Amino acid sequence: MKALLIVDVQNDFCPGGALAVPAGDQIVPVINNMLPQFDLVIASKDWHPSQTAHFDQWPVHCVQDSAGAAFHPDLNHQAIDQILYKGTGKQDDGYSAFEATNLDLAEFLKQKNVEDLTVVGLATDYCVKASALDAVKQGLKTCVRKDAVRAVNIQPDDGRQALEAMKQAGVEIF
Ligand code: VGL
Predict the structure, then answer these.
(1) Residue whose CA is at the smallest distance from ligand 1 atom 2
(2) Which fold has domain 2-173?
(3) What pLDDT digit, counting tens, does each position of 92-101 carry?
(4) pTM of the predicted model as reported, rounded to 2 decimal places
């Protein structure tokens, strides 16, 4: 079974959002086109309480039930089989989709006999990276699609370095 993990393609991470990733919205049609290649489609949502230690590091974003926490309107969310919520606690950064609090993702993928996980979404240098590294630790054949991720790039090279770190850890980047 081949699964796609769509990380945090939410309004707050897209241009105009509270923590906008440059050109974050450009990946949406790319992801929509990829969907038929997968047996299972999972999407994570950053889903924070209005007050959390996470906002000591970051502008307020993806507050539970807010418009900013909704999926980008053009993402084909009909095709999503399972949504994961992460960062839901007051001390919980929830960078990795494997830290979701509504479902044990590792267990879920085992039950579904997924051996092959492709990771796309936002942002390359935080949640995509953390999720892909955890996927490798789970023994999954893990791939990140360069054309379907974008980086925050607080330092201009962060996205490139994140891809390099993932590659070193055994993630296939293509
Ligand atoms: C993310 C920064 C802060 C992400 C989440 O989804 O990559 N980045 N919170």
Answers:
(1) 126
(2) Rossmann fold (3.40.50)
(3) 999 999 999 9
(4) 0.98
